[in-house]
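Co-fold these.
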Amino acid sequence: MADKVTSFDVARLAGVSQSAVSRVFTPGASASAATRDKVTKAAEELGYRPNTLARAMITGKSRVIGVVVAYLENQFYPMALEYLDRALKERGYHILLFMAQNDGNVGQIVEELMSYQVDGIITASVDMSNDIAKRCDDAGIPVVMFNRGQETGTLAQVTSNNIEGGRTVAHFLASGGHRKIAHVSGWQGSSTGLDRMRGFVDGLKDHGVEPVAIEDGRYSQDDAAIIARKLCGTSDRPDAIFVGNDHMAFAVMDCLRFELGLSVPEDVSIVGYDDVPIAAWPAYDLTTIRQPINKMVTATVEILLARIEQGAASERIQIPGPLKIRGSARKPKGFST
Amino acid sequence: MADKVTSFDVARLAGVSQSAVSRVFTPGASASAATRDKVTKAAEELGYRPNTLARAMITGKSRVIGVVVAYLENQFYPMALEYLDRALKERGYHILLFMAQNDGNVGQIVEELMSYQVDGIITASVDMSNDIAKRCDDAGIPVVMFNRGQETGTLAQVTSNNIEGGRTVAHFLASGGHRKIAHVSGWQGSSTGLDRMRGFVDGLKDHGVEPVAIEDGRYSQDDAAIIARKLCGTSDRPDAIFVGNDHMAFAVMDCLRFELGLSVPEDVSIVGYDDVPIAAWPAYDLTTIRQPINKMVTATVEILLARIEQGAASERIQIPGPLKIRGSARKPKGFST
DNA sequence: ATGAAAGCGCTAACAT
DNA sequence: ATGTTAGCGCTTTCAT
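Predicted complex below.
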């Protein structure tokens, strides 16, 4: 018993034309106070709300943004989603959600994205970001990649400064007197994973230190735990590990503490990347690079809507992420970034 | 550029009528192999995809489900979202996401849900579930409340058996020899919070035990920590605490261990509710009632789509949640539910 | 400022 | 099996 109320019904009741009703409900349109009043009353009485779909068909704007995410178990993603929704809602847009399965059917997602007439797309750290982004971009739908980039190319992207972040961690760890330093990297098929690693290795070099091990944790807790076990299961273990994101860092810490009986940071210092809320929980108290998620989201939305609404060009933005020092890693005396 | 390709363009190129094109892209429609072939080729060539919006306008079905969630920081929600998306996608539906801010503008959300012509709505443990649900239901849009219910009423809802869950915890704790048992409840303005509490108190009564304290944690980590501090800051502390959900339980454990210097479970046993993935992390190793999220989601989608597609009646379902015994609470010898 | 009329891209009778 | 013809509910010229 519902939404069968159309602008015609309202028009009839208000004693005006249907287009008058439309005007009253269209932000920029002109209508006399009298008309406006009659229409508003009639609409109220009938419980009328404009059909967004019909409007979208005509204007060619759905005011819907397709957001593609994967693996919500890593707290970084739900946080991004929450901020994204807030920023988008402020501008009058809504999120149509797409979960990229790991066995990712990129083709299908792209099809669906397009058939729903989304005005734009945000891919959030999805493995196949590049793939999806390129195809949608080719199809003329504005895309921006959130927290993932590509080495070369012109697609819009927003990341933190991963290279600089990795370098900062290196500096911090080396200054703390660590010399046997390992790295459980983020997925080496991703720009983020690669950049953090490169910056880290580079930064270490500045201190004349070479990492004792680098292993690809692929952003998986299971993989990270396995690596931690291997790395620290011998007496020849590293005295510090930089882990490619917080999500893996938690698994690494748990493995060291509860499986290997080691202390963090006394036996091994751990540093992560992201600064998700859990990192601040006392059980982990993780020293980590803070990805300024709020700023990143704001920039993402800004860029995307500029493209959609003003046809602006694709931008590629990097936002610096400061080191958040907590208790999971030995602190250098008088450390400064 | 892009998506300006319509079924007419395809029709022209394929040398058939526009409706022939429509039929080829409509699952149940009839078209000869020849036509189907020509159309498919032409469509391919032009990069045509049907406009879902236009289709939705005619059929009156958008194949979009509005999902209202809040507070993604509690891992239970993102998990629900992930399962929901999977189950819905399987049936050809998509999720339009609505974040309910705490300062919740229920009215606006309802407006938006309706104007987007969603076929149905799922509210996931949102504070104002009842409010939103009732209004949408009144408007004729099928709604099911996920993990939240109402005492009386006919709105569709899916929860775990919270009363039974609370009772199970009581039985477990009492059997473990605990006698000074406290409860940090879920929000007492919610059915889930209330039911778990009631079941718990009831179950304790069976053992002739009365809770030493019951405080409303309102599903907030901050509130829970404050309560834990108050409860366990004295020598007269409880020897066990049942916390209304895992999310709060983590905060309680952290407070006891890192602030108060207590041991869990040696000094105080902790039991939670939900069994989110983090509960299994060694740092917490939380004994908790497992909300069978997968089954709950399946049921939710089932009920909703039955209403949408077959006009079925609203169902109210409760799914039993077993106790998952881990290490955060002393184990009774030979315990059986 | 307002009404009439022409579609947006598609599906669903209705014919053939 | 296929084409023709109405619309779905709305925005947007175009007159008035």
